[in-house]
Amino acid sequence: MGKTALVSGAGSGIGFAIASRFVEEGACVVLTDIDEEALEKRAQEITLGGGRTWSMGLDVSSERAWSRIIERLDEESLSLDIMVNNAGIPAMGTIEETDLASWRRVMAINLDGTFLGCKFAISHMKQRGGGVIVNISSIGALRASVVGPAYGASKAGVWNLTRTVALHCARSGYNIRCNSVHPGLTRTPMMNDMPEDMIARMAATVPTGKVAEPEDIASAVLYLASDEARQVTGSTLVVDGGMLA
Predict the structure, then answer these.
(1) pLDDT attached to residue 136
(2) Model's pTM, two decimal places?
(3) pLDDT at 78 exceeding the cut of 90
(4) Which helix (H) or strand (E) is 199 found in, with range?
(5) DSSP string, 128-146
(6) Which tens digit of pLDDT belongs to each residue from 176-201?
(7) Pairing between strand 4-7 and 28-33?
């Protein structure tokens, strides 16, 4: 691949799988996460395997933190080719059970963080001939859930923002593509403490009978980031084992 990719929320789960896959394909990967301890450990795992990486703590809801990331890229003379806005947090509870503080925290990380990632990526990429942005949304953006109004609304915002960014960049002649990936049930660290019988019951709700692995999502992101998808922008790639069908 020979490109530079930045992945937010790369300290675990889907983000780490995406970063690892890019390294396998020959990219230089910038791993970012708010959990700097976990991030450093993950970066070392990739580096031990011969990958080219560097890591930096990032609170995606902070505009100043994003500015520091871009400044670091410039200092390292790295041209950002691929931005993956993956960082996000879950939220459970009905509309009546969700308080305003929780709502705002989910929006700040899931939606504001993606907005800032797109904004800073565009500013950097348009001066360097273009690039690719991939935003991690969710099937929760495409269907309602009575126990996840904040999460679903934030991911629906990411979905709409993705298409808006795609159109803006295309019409501006920036040579920047932007697409969203929508995972369904995926085996992330949040499932680590779940009994296997519970995971099996969850898998039974998926038409394919399987819970996705983070690597399944990483493969979808890799396609969208590759030159094979050069005519794909503003698109919605669902990886859910047929749940929406």
Answers:
(1) 98
(2) 0.95
(3) no
(4) helix 196-203
(5) TT-EEEEEE--GGGTS--T
(6) 999 999 999 998 887 776 678 878 88
(7) parallel
Q: How far is the C-alpha of 213 from the C-alpha of 150, rounded, in Å?
A: 24
Average pLDDT rounded to a whole number, residues 88-108: 94
The token pair that represents 188 in the structure block: 């992330």
H or E element, residue 151: helix 149-172
Reply yes or no on whether the pLDDT at 217 is more than 90: yes
Residue listed under structure tokens 């031990």: 48
Q: How far apart are CA 38 and CA 58, in angstroms?
A: 12
Question: Would you call 218 helix, strand, or coil by DSSP?
Answer: helix
- Beta strands 176-183 and 4-7: pairing type? unpaired
Angle made by CA atoms 174, 141, 176, in degrees to the nearest 5: 10
Cα separation values, 49 from 19, 26, 31, 56, Å: 13, 12, 15, 19
Distance CA 83, CA 37 (A): 22
Scored b (16 or more CB within 10 A) or e, 79-111 reads: ebbbbbbbbbbebebeeeebeeeebeebbbbbb
Per the structure block, which two tokens stand in for 154?
A: 């934030």
Catalytic residues, which ones? Answer: 151
Average the pLDDT over each of 26-30, 64-68, 72-76, 92-96 and give the range with the smallest value. 72-76
